[in-house]
Amino acid sequence: VVVYAPTPAPIAVSKHFAMDIVVCAKPGAPAPQGLRLDAVMPEHNHGMNYKPGVIALGKGRYNADGLMLHMPGRWDFVFDVQTGGASERVTASLALK
Fold first, then answer.
1. Measured between alpha carbons, how far is 67 from 59 in angstroms, rounded to an integer?
2. pLDDT digits (tens, 9 = 90+) for 50-80
3. 71 near 94, Cβ under 8 Å?
4. Helix, strand or coil for residue 50?
5. How do beta strands 73-83 and 34-41 pair?
6. Shortest CA distance to 68 belongs to which of 41, 44, 91?
7. Residue 16 has pLDDT above 90, yes or no
8. Secondary structure letter of residue 85 according to DSSP
9. For residue 19, which of 52, 50, 59 has the smallest C-alpha distance?
């Protein structure tokens, strides 16, 4: 499970924002060891113009900075969670107006 909260909220078109993220491991699974974050527009076949920086804060908590969604439409946040040498992808969609 991945839970996130943008700052400032709500996310605005062409405005930088940060994101606080919490990753909860599956029952019996090891704690996450890392996280990568991206955002893409599937209908337009492109992503963000910026690469966010992700900082681990410990105990499954992360902070991402330097995000910007440069146009309105459907964006998918793509969270790649690294655990025990494997990676699992979690996607969350956002309709940006």
1. 23
2. 999 999 999 999 999 999 999 999 999 999 9
3. no
4. coil
5. antiparallel
6. 41
7. yes
8. T
9. 52
